[in-house]
């Protein structure tokens, strides 16, 4: 700094520099505060879907809406929704389902404080996980009445058949967890089972040991084996393409109509010789 400058001008320069730093810090704080508690944003809504916040207020869910911590998304029998999580993950809520976003913390990096916790009350959803859970596996989990589900970096689906429901007449009540890519674990008070691609775990109740079972085709749809990954194709591109078709694919289950003029494509995985994938 030139010491020959008038001291009054020096003070003005220092004041403006300090004010600029303070303003930048305030803007950063406000930006982080605005994102705090926001888990993701709605990308797609099919039919009537509603969200209930922590205060018990209910309103219809629309494309572009923010999903916050403690929000519960409820879909009607012929409705569904797709949500892009702030960590890059994707969630597709199936028809006649209820999913609560218990807690979500993500400040842009895997610093150990990040977390993504859900409760599936009924029905089902499919998830392609984002950054949360890649490094700190215990920071991502799904609770149901019968079990807790953890991930090992994955594309997976969870379905809860509620006792006394219409589905319970033909499918045992409990939690079903199917893996498309990656690995999950399903845990009850009696133990834990690891679930690999094209496998399904089932937990009837919290006081019963979870089991590996044949994939329940009343709940999950089978599709042909995927084609090998094209050279230069990114994993992100594959995930986005898979989720773009996901809601349409899920509408083939439980007597929901598929939109006309739609081409359904399976998710492409990295293994050139993979067994048939089940969605």
Task: Summarize the entry for a quick read.
This protein has helices at residues 7-35, 235-250, and strands at residues 38-46, 49-52, 58-60, 66-68, 72-75, 80-85, 90-93, 98-105, 115-128, 140-143, 148-151, 155-161, 174-181, 184-188, 191-195, 200-203, 211-213. It is α+β, with helices and mostly antiparallel strands and 279 residues long.
Folded structure, characterized:
By secondary structure, the protein is α+β, with helices and mostly antiparallel strands. The protein is built from two helices and 17 strands. A hairpin with a 2-residue loop joins strand 14 (184-188) and strand 15. It is globular and about 85 Å long.
Characteristic key phrases:
single chain, about 280 residues, alpha+beta, 17-stranded mixed β-sheet, 17 strands, disordered C terminus
Which secondary structure elements does this structure contain, and how are they paired or packed?
Blueprint lengths: L6 H29 L2 E9 L2 E4 L5 E3 L5 E3 L3 E4 L4 E6 L4 E4 L4 E8 L9 E14 L11 E4 L4 E4 L3 E7 L12 E8 L2 E5 L2 E5 L4 E4 L7 E3 L21 H16 L29
Parallel strand pairs: 9-10
Antiparallel strand pairs: 1-4, 1-6, 2-3, 2-5, 5-8, 6-7, 7-9, 8-9, 9-12, 10-11, 11-14, 12-13, 13-16, 14-15, 16-17
Provide the gyration radius in Å.
Answer: 23 Å
Helix content: 10-25%
Helix and strand pattern = HEEEEEEEEEEEEEEEEEH
Which parts are unreliable, with pLDDT below 50 for 5 consecutive residues or more? 22-36, 224-242, 247-279
Counted by DSSP, the helix tally is 2
The biggest sheet amounts to: 17 strands, mixed
- Mean pLDDT comes to 77
- Tell me, briefly, the overall form: globular
Q: What is the strand content?
A: 25-35%
Please provide the count of β strands: 17
As an assembly, this protein is single chain
Distance from N terminus to C terminus (CA atoms, Å) equals 66 Å
Structural class of the helices, strands and pairings?
alpha+beta
